[in-house]
Design brief:
With about 100 residues, the protein is an alpha+beta fold. It has a single domain (about 1-100), classed as Alpha-Beta Plaits (2-Layer Sandwich). Helix content is about 35%, strand content about 35%. The protein is built from three helices and four strands; from the N terminus they run E-H-E-E-H-H-E. The protein has helices at about 15-30, 65-75, 75-85, and strands spanning about 1-10, 35-40, 55-60, 90-100. The protein is globular and about 40 Å long.
């Protein structure tokens, strides 16, 4: 089992629009081969009332590292481009791959 973690910092002024886009984007990701589930997590250590930018983490669970490699080779560029085309530099994304230890 692999966890593909995407960390997002979204400008407060577009957060609602980004969230509206992100839900269906996650569903698109889950339709790809090897993706089994996803969790959308919110960092509670920021103060939205003070206008801080939301910080979200998406954990995608994939069956194997090979499934992730296939995603990187066949789908990642297109999936990432959708957010960039729509929101440009109004968000930041970092990613990492985690292996579930048994």
């Amino acid at each position: 089992m692999i966890i593909y973690e995407v960390n997002l910092i979204v400008k407060q002024k577009i957060a609602d629009d980004y969230a509206d886009w992100l839900g269906p984007h996650i569903e698109e990701m889950l339709a790809l081969p090897g993706f089994e589930s996803a969790e959308w997590l919110e960092d509670v250590d920021y103060d939205v009332d003070e206008g801080a930018d939301p910080r979200w983490v998406i954990h995608y669970r994939l069956r194997s590292h090979d499934d992730f490699v296939r995603y990187e080779q066949e789908h990642a560029e297109q999936m990432r481009a959708e957010g960039l085309e729509r929101f440009g530099t109004k968000f930041e994304a970092t990613r990492r791959i985690l292996r579930v230890r048994s």
